[in-house]
Amino acid sequence: MKLAVPETSRLKIGFILARSFTLSAFALFVDTLRLASDEADRSGRVFADWQVLASTRHLITASCGVQVAPTSDFVDPGLFDYIVVVGGLLNNEFPVDDETVRYLKRAAAAKVPLIGVCTGTFILADAGLMKYHRTCVSWLHYQAFRQRFPDHEVRADRIFNLDRTRGSCAGGSSAADMAASIVRRHISERAERNALEVLQIDKARSALHIQPRRPLAIECDDPRLQAALIMMESHIENTISIPQLAASVGLSRRQLERLFMEQTKSSPALVYKRVRLERAKQLLLETSVPMVEIAIEVGFENASHFSRAFRETFGVPPSKVRSAMPN
């Protein structure tokens, strides 16, 4: 016999799906709730409830072409413990309509926690709802976020973040990790364990887990080194100092240098330089951006300094790499 739970004690989450949203991120988040809400795979809404909210009942098309039907109009946002915005492709100029933006602002005014999943953080930031909160985005979208919202605090080394009344999640499989942390907080560890076991997930990753990204294809198991590499890749133009880099991963400069020498046989400064020059090489091969602009974009003061460093690293001047680019 199923346990009856008072309606007021249920964890309630409203989902807002952007046009061209990422289906996997939504599915993993909502399925974690579904499996945590009941025993085994019964799918009853015992401990949690969820709705797909929208301004109309038109089908919403995911980036993969699958369509999802909204289940609720924009009801009082105060009925939900969280409202989760699931984003997707960034090339959609209007991922949500104006009524949706107004609803999100109403929810924020009512102190309902808002969560951006995948590029849902862009939608919240566009609405002016992320400015005073640290935002976590995928390394894939980091540069785009910084360009669009230069006055926002953002990082691309962690898989998710829950900061006061805002949350952000890099997307993909980390949607299940974030949902699991919410389940654990609002329902129980047992409910979380049930959901993860049915989903064939050994253990939920914490918000401190490092995104699986290794610039320069450096194989390493130390999460501090992985985080440092992602930070390097995320700060190509606006470079950060080695002490700042060390502090961002919880180490002193000396500890960071020792870690790099042990794992890569090189100093963090030289690896950072290589990361920047690899980016320059990519720009030379794939774009027609002038040499001086590439030099500035990858953190060099002038073209001559850039050209000298490029030759020292790759054995050829950048002009030769550019000339090899197909017309």
Describe the structure.
The N and C termini lie far apart (70 Å). This protein has a 6-stranded mixed β-sheet, with helices on both faces. The protein has a two-stranded antiparallel ribbon with strand order 3-4. A two-stranded parallel ribbon has the order 7-8. The mean pLDDT is 91. It has 13 helices and 10 strands. The longest helix is centred in the C-terminal third of the chain and has 19 residues, at 268-286. It has 2 domains: 7-198, Rossmann fold, CATH 3.40.50.880; 214-327, Arc Repressor Mutant, subunit A. Helices cover 42% and strands 12% of the residues. The chain has helices spanning 23-36, 98-109, 120-126, 142-148, 174-186, 189-198, 223-234, 242-248, 253-264, 268-286, 291-297, 303-314, 318-323, and strands at 11-17, 48-53, 60-61, 67-68, 82-86, 114-117, 135-136, 154-155, 160-163, 166-169. The radius of gyration is 22 Å and the shape is globular. α1 crosses α6 (189-198). β5, α2 and β6 (114-117) form a beta-alpha-beta unit. The protein is of the alpha/beta class and 327 residues long.
In short:
InterPro entries: Class_I_gatase-like, DJ-1/PfpI, Homeodomain-like_sf, HTH_AraC, HTH_AraC-typ_CS, INH-QAR, Tscrpt_reg_AraC-type_HTH. By secondary structure, this protein is of the alpha/beta class. The chain is built from 13 helices and 10 strands.
